[in-house]
Write a structure and sequence with these properties.
2 domains; six-stranded mixed sheet; mainly beta; 163 residues; elongated; 45% strand; disordered N terminus; OB fold (Dihydrolipoamide Acetyltransferase, E2P)
Length: 163
């Protein structure tokens, strides 16, 4: 009987210890950040977590000072979701925009999109797909472009967007 009691106490201790150290992962975008706290928004709302000197910062940032509002993050938290153990800052994703060409020249492109007219810089680094010269694209053509995360530059122009 005494052995069973000790086994139950040991099992309870092991289970409690495991749960106490179980980590949770929270993914979303940063809405607020300081040296002591980070707030992350996901589909369930916002969660503010403490940041300590032991918090590891990985990904495209190596310090909390490099983490910016709007950045995508995956945060490993303590079980209570009160403290950030590891903050992984994700690289920004390029967005795809499609619409009708309003104007185009060698250095910029304006599309009529669902949000209105949007102008993007075209640089020598802008990749091109389905055409050889930018002059082949005409006003009113329907195209798709990949844009930089800051929504300023066209990174790829696809003259024949997916159907």
């Amino acid at each position: 009987m005494r052995a069973i009691k000790h086994l139950l106490v040991a099992a309870t201790f092991i289970c409690t210890s495991t749960l106490a150290f179980a980590d949770e992962v929270l993914g979303g975008s940063v809405t607020s950040v300081s040296a002591d706290f980070i707030t992350v928004k996901d589909e369930n709302g916002e969660k503010t977590l403490s940041v300590t000197p032991d918090t590891q910062i990985t990904g495209i940032a190596s310090t909390i000072a490099e983490v910016t509002i709007g950045a995508g993050v995956a945060v490993r938290c303590n079980a209570e979701l009160t403290s950030a153990l590891v903050i992984r800052v994700l690289p920004p994703l390029d967005a795809v925009v499609s619409g009708s060409v309003v104007s185009i020249c060698e250095t910029s492109l304006t599309l009529k999109t669902e949000q209105g007219n949007e102008t993007f810089a075209v640089t020598p680094e802008t990749a091109k797909k389905n055409y050889t010269d930018i002059a082949e694209i005409k006003v009113d053509d329907k195209i798709a472009i990949r844009i930089s995360s800051d929504r300023k530059n066209a990174t790829l122009i696809n003259a024949k967007p997916p159907q």
